[in-house]
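About this split. The held-out portion is used to measure sequence recovery: a designer receives only the C-alpha cells and must propose an amino acid at every position. Recovery is the fraction of positions where the proposal matches the reference. Here is one held-out target exactly as it appears in the evaluation file.
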C-alpha cells in the first residue's frame, strides 16, 4: 500500500504572503457575516443593559451570549482559513489523515463513498432545498420558505466566496477518485449539507410526533452529514481542515439565520429587546 505521509499540504497555494495581500482577502470572507452579526447583537445587548427594567437585563444577557457564540465561530472559521492559506495551525493533521484514507481504500468502500458524495453534493442539496420550499409554499408557511431559501442561497454564496478568496489547492490529483476542478477550502459538500439539512430539521421536526421519532431523524441527519464529509476525504479531493471548515461555516450560517429569525419574529409585536427577553423567560420556547 502507498504510504502518503510524506505528501504534505501546500503551505501557500496562492503563492502570496500576508505582505502581498490584504489580510481580509487572504483569509477569505466566510467568517465576516458572523463577526458582523456578533457586533450587532453586542450593540443591542448594550442598549438593553442601560434600560432600567429587569427584563432588559435578561435581554442583554441573551443578546451577549448569542453574540459571543457568533464571535467564537467567526474566530474559529478565520483560524481555519488562516491555516489553509499559510499551511500552519490545525492543517498539521491534513497529511496523516489524507494518508490514512488513501491507505485504507477498498472497492466496496469506494462504491459507498461515491454514492454518499453524490447524494450529498451541492446540486443534490439545492434540489432538496427547492423541493422543501415548494412543499412549504403549498402549506403557506411563508416564514419557513424564506428561512430555507436564505440558508440555501447563503450557503452557496459562502462556498463560492470562500473557495475563491482562500484559493487552497486540493490534494494531489493522481490520488483523487473523482474529478474536481475548483478550489479546496471550504468543502462545499460539507458546508451545504450542514446548513441545508440543519434548516430542514428546524422546519420539519415540529411535524414529527414523538421524541423517539425526532431523535431518529436528528441522528440520521447527523450521520449523513458526517458521512458526506468523510466521503470527501476518502475520495482524495479534500484535506481534513477543508471538511472541518465546511461543517463549522455551514452550522455558523444556520445559527446566524436562526438568530435573526428569532429577533425578527418578535419585532412585529414588541420592541426587539423585549421580544428576545420574552423568549428567554419562556422555558417552553427555544431561543432558536
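Reference sequence for scoring:
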Amino acid at each position: 500500500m502507498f504510504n502518503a505521509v510524506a505528501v504534505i499540504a501546500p503551505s501557500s497555494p496562492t503563492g502570496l504572503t500576508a505582505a502581498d495581500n490584504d489580510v481580509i482577502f487572504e483569509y477569505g470572507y466566510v467568517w465576516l457575516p458572523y463577526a458582523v452579526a456578533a457586533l450587532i447583537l453586542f450593540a443591542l445587548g448594550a442598549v438593553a443593559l442601560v434600560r432600567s427594567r429587569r427584563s432588559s437585563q435578561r435581554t442583554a444577557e441573551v443578546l451577549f451570549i448569542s453574540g459571543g457564540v457568533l464571535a467564537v465561530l467567526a474566530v474559529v472559521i478565520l483560524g481555519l482559513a488562516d491555516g489553509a492559506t499559510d499551511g500552519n495551525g490545525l492543517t498539521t493533521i491534513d497529511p496523516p489523515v489524507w494518508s490514512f484514507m488513501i491507505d485504507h481504500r477498498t472497492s466496496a468502500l469506494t462504491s459507498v463513498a461515491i454514492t454518499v458524495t453524490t447524494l450529498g453534493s451541492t446540486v443534490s442539496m439545492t434540489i432538496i432545498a427547492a423541493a422543501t420550499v415548494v412543499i412549504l409554499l403549498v402549506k403557506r408557511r411563508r416564514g419557513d420558505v424564506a428561512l430555507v431559501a436564505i440558508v440555501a442561497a447563503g450557503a452557496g454564496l459562502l462556498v463560492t466566496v470562500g473557495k475563491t478568496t482562500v484559493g487552497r489547492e486540493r490534494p494531489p490529483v493522481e490520488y483523487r477518485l473523482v474529478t474536481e476542478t475548483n478550489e479546496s477550502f471550504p468543502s462545499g459538500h460539507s458546508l451545504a449539507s450542514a446548513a441545508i439539512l440543519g434548516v430542514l430539521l428546524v422546519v420539519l421536526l415540529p411535524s414529527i410526533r414523538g421524541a423517539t421519532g425526532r431523535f431518529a431523524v436528528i441522528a440520521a441527519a447527523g450521520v449523513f452529514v458526517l458521512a458526506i464529509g468523510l466521503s470527501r476525504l476518502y475520495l482524495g479531493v479534500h484535506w481534513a481542515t477543508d471538511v472541518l471548515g465546511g461543517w463549522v461555516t455551514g452550522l455558523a450560517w444556520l445559527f446566524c439565520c436562526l438568530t435573526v429569525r428569532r429577533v425578527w419574529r418578535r419585532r412585529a409585536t414588541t420592541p426587539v429587546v423585549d421580544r428576545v427577553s420574552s423568549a428567554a423567560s419562556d422555558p417552553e420556547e427555544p431561543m432558536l
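Annotator remark: DSSP finds eleven helices and no strands in the chain.
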